[in-house]
Structure formats: C-alpha cells, structure tokens
Amino acid sequence: MRKRSGISTLIKLAVLLIVIGLIGFAGYRIQQIRQAGSHSEAVVEVMKNMIPGLGEDTGISTGKGKDPLPALSIDNIDIVGCLEIPALDLMVPVTASGIEEDGFVSVKSGSPVKGKFRLTGNRDDVFRNLAEAKPGDKVSFTDVEGVRYNYRVTTQFHLKNWDEADNDLMVCYDTDSQTQFVLGCSAAE
C-alpha cells in the first residue's frame, strides 16, 4: 500500500505543478496583451499629434494616397496608418507589410489605392470583438499623410482558401491554421 500511496502523491504533485504552470503562463499572456494594448494606445496618441484630422470622422474619403503606402517610424515600428471601427470603439495603428506586433494590425496584402486591401490582427487582443461588427458599420483607414479611406461593412465570413471576393477592404484574423474570419468591406463615399 505504501508504494501506491507514494505514486499517488507523486501524481498529485505533478498535476499540481502542471496546473500552477498553466495558471502562471495564462497570467503572463494576459499581462503581455495589456502591455501591447497600452503600447498601441501610446502610438495612436503620437499619431494624433502628427496626422491632421486622425480620429475625426468627417464622413468623407479625402482622396487617393500613395502606393506603396508611406511609413512613419514610431518606437522603431514602421507605421503606415490607423484603422478605425467606431462601432467597436477600435482605433489601432497599422504596421507595414510583414511587421507583426502585439496590439497592432498589419498590412497583409493590397493597398487602399489599388484595392483588395487586407489587414490582419490577433483575435485575442486587437480583434477580440471583431465578430460584433455588423453590415453597414463604418470602417476607415487613414494613412500617415492624413489621407482617409472610408468603408462600410458588407459581410462576415469564414474562409478556408484565401479568396479576396469583391471586397475593397478585408479585416481578418486566423481562427485556426487553415481558416480565417473575414470582415468584408466596400468603399464608401
């Protein structure tokens, strides 16, 4: 009986250590997400001081900007603009293509000038409420020179093989290794 009791105690101790490790990792990840949110909010404040009219909904697209998008380095991160979805109280910096940063959105492909503009972010932090956006909601992207592009949400869908469909702007996050949640938007005047 003693051997069983010893083995049972070791198993309980191993399970306890695993649970403590998982709780510690979850706490660490939550802290990372909070810090990322603070960092992106600080970058947005810097952008508001540098880009005229950022965050002010004039309801008007201000015209065609440059392609490729001009970039501005803030805290050693190349920023190309800001994504706003007022219905979700979301205002987040957008990094240049290939630059992924927690708490930020990244250009995946396309551009607001040429169309098929695809932005990606993390569903656990910046896009945690993205699925709450509804058809008709306003979405805007403002580049670092202050050129604003307005869109309206037209659809939501899950996608296994990337197909850009007829959307001028796609705001996405991965739901698993082969599927993305996509918020499809059309240009609005």
What brief labels describe this structure?
1 helix, alpha+beta, eight-stranded mixed β-barrel, Sortase, Chain: A, 189 residues
Brief synopsis:
Helices cover 26% and strands 33% of the residues.
Helix fraction by DSSP (H/I, runs of at least 4): 25-40%
Domain count: the total is 1
Portion in strands: 25-35%
Average predicted local confidence, pLDDT: 82
CATH architecture: Beta Barrel
Order of helices and strands: HEEEEEEEEE
Shape: elongated
Distance between the termini: 79 Å
How many whole angstroms does the radius of gyration measure?
21 Å
Largest sheet properties: 8 strands, mixed, barrel
Q: Kindly state the number of beta strands.
A: 9
Largest beta sheet: strand ordering:
2-3-4-5-8-9-7-6
Write the layout of secondary structure elements.
Blueprint: H1 2-50, E1 72-74, E2 77-85, E3 90-95, E4 105-111, E5 115-120, E6 138-143, E7 148-159, E8 169-174, E9 180-187
Parallel strand pairs: 3-4, 5-8
Antiparallel strand pairs: 1-2, 2-3, 2-6, 4-5, 6-7, 7-9, 8-9
